[in-house]
Amino acid sequence: VTTLVFRESANVEALYAFNPDRLASLFDNDSNAIDGVLLVASRSLSRAIDRIVAPEETSLDARENAHQLKGAAGNVGADELSDLAEALELELLRGWTSSARAVVASLPGAMQRFTNALSAVDQRLST
Amino acid sequence: MTAILVVDDSDVERAIYVHILETLHLPGITTPVAFAESTKALAWSESNDFDLAIVDYNMPEINGLEVISALRVNPAHRETPIVMVTSATEHDVRYRALELGANDFVTKPIDRIEFIARVQNMLALSRSYRKLADRAASLSDEVARATAGIIRRERETVFRLTRAAEFRDNETGAHILRMGLFCAEIAVELGMSQDECDMMLMAAPMHDVGKVATPDAILLKPGQLSPEEWVIMRQHTLQGYEILKESESSLLQLAADIALSHHERFDGSGYPNGLVGEAIPLAGRICAVSDVFDALTSKRPYKDAWSIDQAVATVLAGSAKHFDPAVITAFRSALPRIVELKIRNADLPVAM
Questions:
Q1: Cα(B339)–Cα(B126) distance, rounded to whole angstroms?
Q2: CB contact under 8 A, B12 and A25
């Protein structure tokens, strides 16, 4: 049995970027499964953000991508990304407003914090 | 062994579902089959069986609602449980999904315990559907076998009843057989259904069953019958009807109509009721033609067999008088086959 823990005592920001308890619970502490899904998630969330920030993206397409980003990020414990995606999805109902652009601008930073948090996570044997 | 179909364009969510399903080690279920594209999933579903579909709502091109609709159109998947994956706020989507045939939902982000419980519930439902379908198929086979048995026994009863009447008459077994065959051929030409033609084939041989009640002195009299004897002789139509009427069997109901009406004439000069035209049951009008044609072309103790041409000319001359013109037209169309049946089923000594 393994548990996911931060190598060093995680701050609130890191826990918000990536909550390891979510995947541990979802996969019943199966480390191989967690590794596999995190690999998929890293690529998938990056692609979703790239599509959203692409200049040719229409608000409708961006909202679809924001919806998907919200679901995928939420499922792997990337709570900050999931919350931002949800805020963007709602904001895009009104189109490409300045608020929507502000949320979009914050996505790469949140993705970076997610990646950093992943690097700081270790899997430890639990007895 | 069947599968669980997963349709979700999100790589992350697909990986999550597949992993959880694989670790369940469900009995009788192979590895989950996952598709990122709805079109590929639907193409796969056309030729593959599965016990459960897990379908995301929000997908490009064909969304989850359209996937559910397409699956439900396929008779093979009409009862297969479908779980739709939605977010908690998509109430309208859930209502629409239920209308289209979704059985249950899971909410994103996925909760492992809830997801497993819903999957297992749906698989139990799927197993119940399969058991019911198997039972229905088995019952259907049993009913078909029992029905076939009833039909066989009904035919045998009819055959034995008909044979009983034969023993009292000069008619031969071959005449009885030919009556059914000729009537069925005429029925075909009249555009009657296969079932109706089969019924004519089986019911027509019973046309003279009422003769069991005719006294031997009249039935077997070698010479001409007196007017009083004719009155008694003609009662075989009513007596046949009495024997056969009020049966629950549609075959015997038809035979009763035939027994009663096969001596009616189209112009109203027949017996026992002097019915005119289409007031005479169609089966009776068909039997009248077959009976006369076969009687004319058969040898009897008191006459030789007529030639086919003579008999046909006589029958045709009776159109609109003795016979229904529409039945005569059908008789003419069927004549080559009727003649062939006449030759193939020539009179044989009646087996005792």
A1: 59
A2: no
User: How far A43 CA lies from chain B's nearest CA (Å)?
Assistant: 9
Q: Please give the span between the terminal C-alpha atoms of chain A, in angstroms, as a whole number.
A: 8
Given the cut 0.95, state whether the ipTM is greater than it.
Answer: no
Q: Is B323 strand, coil or helix?
A: strand
pLDDT digits (tens, 9 = 90+) for B166-217: 777 656 668 888 999 999 999 999 999 999 999 999 999 999 999 888 998 8
Tell me the pLDDT tens digit for each residue of B15-55: 999 989 988 877 776 678 999 999 999 999 999 999 999 99
Alpha carbon dihedral B107, B112, B118, B123, in 10-degree steps, equals 130
Q: What is the DSSP letter of A123?
A: E
Burial label for A87, CB within 10 Å (0-12, 13-18, 19+), is middle
User: How high is the pLDDT of residue A108?
Assistant: 94
Residues in chain B within 8 Å Cβ distance of A30: 19, 23
Query: What band does B345 get if pLDDT is binned at 50, 70 and 90?
Result: confident
| Residue in A30, A34, A44 to test binding to B, most B beta-carbons within 10 Å | A44
Q: Average pLDDT, stretch B49-66?
A: 92
Radius of gyration (C-alpha) of chain B in whole angstroms: 34
> Would you put residue B139 in left (φ > 0), alpha (ψ -120 to 50) or beta?
alpha
The tokens 């609602």 sit on which residue?
A: B65
Single-letter residue type at B325: P
Other C-beta atoms closer than 10 Å to the C-beta of B26 total 16
Q: What is the DSSP letter of A3?
A: E
Say what the pTM is. 0.58
Q: What are phi and psi of B276, to 5 degrees?
A: -120, 140
Task: Say which residue the tokens 């393994």 belong to.
Answer: A2
In a 10 Å sphere around its CB, with 0-12 CB exposed, 13-18 middle and 19+ buried, how is residue B200 labelled? buried
In chain B, which residues have their Cβ closer than 8 Å to the Cβ of A82? 109
Concatenating the DSSP letter of every residue in B48-65 gives: --EEEEEEES--SSS-HH
Mutation target to probe the A interface, by most A beta carbons within 10 A, among B6, B12, B87 is B12
DSSP character at residue A127: -
Hey, which residues does B55 pair with through a beta bridge? B7, B84
